[in-house]
Specification:
The structure is a single chain. With 258 residues, the chain is of the alpha/beta class. It has a single domain, classed as TIM Barrel, CATH 3.20.20. 42% of the residues lie in helices and 15% in strands. The chain is built from twelve helices and eight strands. The chain has helices spanning 22-33, 47-57, 84-88, 100-105, 110-122, 135-139, 143-155, 160-163, 184-202, 204-209, 223-227, 244-253; strands spanning 8-12, 40-44, 63-67, 92-97, 126-131, 167-170, 212-215, 234-237. Strand 2, helix 2 and strand 3 (63-67) form a beta-alpha-beta unit. Bound molecules: phosphoenolpyruvate. Residues 12, 14, 171, 176-177, 215-218, 236-240 line the site of phosphoenolpyruvate.
């Protein structure tokens, strides 16, 4: 039975691209994707480029905006932080939560990830919860334990209404920015495991509707085969999203012929 999951392709620019680079990027990218339909597209610029992207895109449907991070706090004396309400004000729809770079480089624990997820949901932002194992954990055969712990830590206790808003991104840490990609079979196995976890947590209907993205060195050459796997519902793309033409090719690879 075909499941009603529209693919989502999201480009995480990480700490790249100044505000003045946004306009030429968007001019090219919009031209390249003009003919593409049936795929949700998100761009996830750094905070300083979000304003410019938001001015150009406004609330347009074709390209949605995402943020790379948010504060778990609503407002106040948290110097350097950005709140969910500030993101909403810029028409931001998605927000990455628990990206492995934040977990690894900035000490984000599962509890911090959970609080950020709750803050995003409270402001009607759609969190993209990133989870994934390191190479050592995979080599030790621990990848499913790691995924389960991260899912449990972030999602336990959420209502079904909130869970329905969550998008999951499986991003094996060993594949991020390394040029190594999980094989389609490895990725599918992890995605199926995640969907089974969601089924146990919230039932088959909700799990069947939840989008699970793959991330980790996705390129225009690897995207189509990865996204043709039954439980892979799109891609979270880092490095390859910085080139608007290459990223448009990845978006095109998500279009499935019926
Ligand atoms: C990411 O940052 O989420 C990512 C998947 O990066 P890359 O595509 O560069 O591996």
């Amino acid at each position: 039975m075909a499941l009603p999951r529209k693919k989502l392709v999201a480009g995480n620019w990480k700490m790249n691209m100044t505000s003045s680079e946004v306009t030429p990027y968007l001019e090219t990218f919009r031209r390249e994707i003009d003919e593409i339909d049936g795929v949700d597209i998100a761009l996830i610029p750094p905070f300083t480029a979000l304003t410019k992207a938001s001015e150009i895109l406004g609330g347009t449907q074709k390209i949605r905006l995402g943020a790379q991070n948010l504060s778990p706090e609503a407002k106040g004396a948290f110097t350097g932080e950005i709140s969910a309400a500030m993101l909403r004000d810029l028409f931001v729809r998605y927000v990455l939560v628990g990206h492995s770079e934040r977990r690894r480089l900035f000490g984000e624990t599962d509890e911090i990830v959970r609080r950020k997820l709750v803050a995003a949901l409270a402001s009607e932002l759609r969190p993209i919860l990133c989870i994934g194992e390191t190479l050592e954990e995979r080599q030790a055969g621990q990848e499913k334990v790691v995924l389960e712990t991260q899912l449990q830590g972030a999602l336990a206790g959420l209502s079904k209404e909130d869970l329905a808003e969550v998008i999951v991104a499986y991003e094996p840490v060993w594949a991020i920015g390394t040029g190594l990609t999980a094989t389609p079979a490895q990725a599918q196995e992890a995605h199926l495991f995640i969907r089974e976890f969601l089924t146990k947590l919230a039932g088959a209907e909700l799990a069947g509707k939840t989008r699970i993205l793959y991330g980790g060195s996705v390129t225009a050459d690897t995207a189509a085969e990865l996204m043709s796997q039954p439980d892979i519902d799109g891609a979270l793309v880092g490095g390859a999203s910085l080139d608007p033409r290459g990223f448009a090719k990845i978006v095109a690879a998500a279009v499935t012929e019926e």
